[in-house]
Design brief:
The chain has 2 domains: about 90 residues, Glutaredoxin, CATH 3.40.30; about 110 residues, Up-down Bundle (Glutathione S-transferase Yfyf (Class Pi), Chain A, domain 2), CATH 1.20.1050.10. The protein contains 10 helices and 4 strands, in the order βαβααββααααααα. It has a 4-stranded mixed beta sheet. A hairpin with a 4-residue loop joins β3 and β4. The two termini are about 30 Å apart. The mean pLDDT is about 95. The structure holds glutathione (GSH). Glutathione binds next to α4.
């Protein structure tokens, strides 16, 4: 679904980020969900100064992106947005309380039980590659993350997706797994690599990624 400036769904993200963050800004999640659901969305692109300002913090208390609104609700937190978009479509959430609860469980697990461990590694490898504390801490961070990846891998086994058909949970888990910055660690779990690549080969993912990449200004945006 193309970006539609008149759509009722509006996703806010940064107008510019450094090269290393491109493709990884978390508005990718609601963009991907909209693409899967066939729902158009409008982009609102803001500068860092606006993001840290008082007005915007009423939308996103931490001064981060993404933020989201549609004709009924206003939200922050990318996981919550994906669930909201999933409510508006039959593509990302199974019918029935049992299936829905499982998807909610895995969205929460990806964000709460896996992503913080991935981020510990990103913090060292991407944001502090030369820091002495990072070198000391890295082996423990790798071990901790290995434990979490083993949990996901064990659950997934030979399944195509986390819970039955492709769902909101796979959007969140894939975006978490693609941030793992140690290829050798991920290679210990071939089923996770196959799963991540299966999800990322979906045309909706490619459209969302391309839309994010196309949205960045070439130079920093002042406000
Ligand atoms: N838990 C939030 C995290 C949002 C987040 O980390 N946003 C990053 C971009 S991906 C950001 O705005 N960073 C700038 C900052 O923290 O100042 C979500 O999933 O929406």
């Amino acid at each position: 679904m193309p970006i539609d400036p008149n759509a009722t769904i509006e996703i806010t993200s940064f107008a510019w980020v450094p090269e290393l963050a491109r493709g990884f800004v978390r508005d990718l999640r609601p963009r991907w969900a909209c693409e899967e659901a066939g729902l158009g969305y409008a982009e609102r692109l803001i500068g860092f100064e606006t993001a840290k300002g008082e007005d915007y913090r009423r939308e996103q208390p931490f001064g981060q992106v993404p933020a989201y609104r549609d004709d009924e609700v206003q939200m922050f937190e990318s996981g919550a947005m994906v669930l909201r978009i999933a409510e508006r479509s039959d593509k990302l959430m199974p019918e029935g309380a049992a299936g829905r609860s499982r998807v909610l469980t895995w969205v929460t697990a990806a964000l709460n039980s896996v992503e913080p461990f991935v981020f510990d590694l990103v913090d060292i490898d991407t944001f502090n590659p030369d820091a002495e504390w990072g070198k000391l801490r890295r082996p423990q961070v790798i071990d901790n993350l290995r434990g979490r990846l083993a949990g996901v891998s064990g659950w997934l086994g030979e399944k195509e997706y986390l819970e039955g058909d492709f769902s909101a949970a796979d959007i969140i888990m894939t975006t978490v797994l693609r941030e793992v910055s140690d290829d050798a660690l991920l290679a210990e779990f071939p089923n996770l690599i196959a799963y991540r690549d299966r999800c990322m080969s979906r045309p909706a993912f490619e459209r969302a990624l391309n839309a994010q990449l196309a949205s960045f200004a070439p130079e920093p945006v002042p406000a």
